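Following up on my earlier thread - several people asked me to post the actual chain instead of describing it. Fair enough. Here it is, all 225 residues.
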Amino acid sequence: MKPFLILLFILISGISNAQIPEGFKPLFNGKNLKGWHVSRTTHQGTTPNFSVEDGVIVARQEPYGQGGLLMTNETFRDFELYLEIKIDSFANGGIFIRSNEGGAAYQIELVLPGNTGDLIGERIPVSQPAHANQIKKVWKEGDWNSFRICMTGEVPHLTLWINGVEMWDVQQTKNDFLAGATEGMIALQCHWTAVYSPAAGNGMPLSSWRPNATHQFRNIAVKKL
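Reply from S.P.:
Thanks for posting it. Predicted structure:
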């Protein structure tokens, strides 16, 4: 291949991997976990296996069964969050927003098959949960999918887009957070696993995290509002 074609290929490849919207500040430098920490106080677990590989944050369970939260050092109040995610099936995780150190937060589910994109509460009630009804129309199986989350207000107003398509737009009826918190960390969840066996029945034991599964994250960025 001629030199100028090689350069063009590199430039095009770089553009295809740089999907952070204009005006957003990166939260992940693509090299290490600087600016992030593992929570040592959450009931989710305290030994999640998060690593950086080829510019991507990879979540695994090694040792198997262990989970936890990888959290930003910085806290946020009103913001838009952008990130790209690739998740294996039968691996339960989530995006936590306005989280405290113990993992009390609003959570956007990441689990296949299951309720990926749904808004639920983790250790807090949610006055207005939401379901991603349109996700099957836009989801790219086994590939990268973009999430854009907007959260504003003391009584939170939240919107989620997946691959540029709005999944839900909800206004909570009250501040659901402990002690009325109005800011918190952004966190990535690797759910602990008690057992993995199709014979175990339904619920968390089956879908928590199958052996050797991964969640991958890249192009993580935020815009304060």
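Confidence is low (pLDDT under 50) at residues 1-16. That should answer part of your original question.
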